[in-house]
Amino acid sequence: MEQYLGEIRIFGGNFAPVNWLFCQGQLLQISDNEALFTLLGTTYGGDGQTTFALPNMASRVAVGQGQGPGLSGYTIGQVMGTENVTLTLAQIPVHAHPFNGTFNAIAGDTATGQTNPNGAYFSDRGESAYNTALGDTPVELGAGALTGQVTPAGGSKPHTNIQPVTAINYIIATAGIWPSQP
């Protein structure tokens, strides 16, 4: 069976067979490929006066044109996507980070009425008693919460955003049967 002019196939070889070219976005002279230009026009590039481009499938995955139910719509020749993405804070999932801190308090000593110049503290074990530096009976302090903002972390480096792939060649027929329309 002979191929259609402009037909694209996947080819496992490391060369393009006779009457086929790799789909790598190269510019062709219209004067040398009038029939193929009639089919493709400048859909994939070129100036339309002397040149036109073949589709560029290098490092790309094909997607059908149009729009399926609940899916994005694509027009023929549209190029989209990127291999690497740097996420913003708005794009990452909502999450929380542990917050560890020390709560310092200055309070009066119950026996002497003096202020503890060294500060009092809640221990990091969840105790709520104020321990005086003078050794007197601790003063019970009310429950409280530490609030604050954790400094954002990360290096804003892009991460790979590519599905598992196998590199293979796409080729386009530069000669063949003229495709008739229904």
UniProtKB/TrEMBL annotation:
<dbReference type="InterPro" id="IPR037053">
    <property type="entry name" value="Phage_tail_collar_dom_sf"/>
</dbReference>
<dbReference type="InterPro" id="IPR011083">
    <property type="entry name" value="Phage_tail_collar_dom"/>
</dbReference>
<feature type="domain" description="Phage tail collar">
    <location>
        <begin position="6"/>
        <end position="61"/>
    </location>
</feature>
<protein>
    <submittedName>
        <fullName>Tail fiber protein</fullName>
    </submittedName>
</protein>
<dbReference type="Pfam" id="PF07484">
    <property type="entry name" value="Collar"/>
</dbReference>
